[in-house]
Specification:
93 residues, five-stranded antiparallel sheet, 2 helices, 33% helix, globular
């Protein structure tokens, strides 16, 4: 299974995760706890872990072709949810 990960430095990880989950809960299956969340898309799954100074995000898909697409979707939405906070997102797969 293709897998991609990123580690985002931010003191607002829990808030970003929560905003993202609220936004997508109307469209996708979202399971959210205090420090972690799972978002299930049609083509893969996004796992998010909020730590005190960082956000760990991983994406898993069944097919390689969907990985780049989901990276773009998750990244653009994280940037939008962060509002004025600049995020450096580098995916590793």
């Amino acid at each position: 299974m293709p897998l991609s990960r990123t580690e985002i430095a931010t003191p607002f990880g829990e808030r970003l995760m929560s905003r993202l989950c609220q936004h997508w809960a109307h469209t996708f299956v979202v399971e959210q706890g205090d420090q972690q969340a799972t978002i299930t898309f049609e083509t893969g799954t996004c796992l998010i872990y909020a730590e005190p100074e960082r956000l760990l995000v991983s994406i898993e898909t069944l097919e390689e072709e969907h990985l780049d697409q989901l990276e773009g979707v998750v990244e653009s939405h994280l940037v939008r949810m962060a509002k004025d906070e600049p995020l450096e997102i580098v995916w590793e797969n």
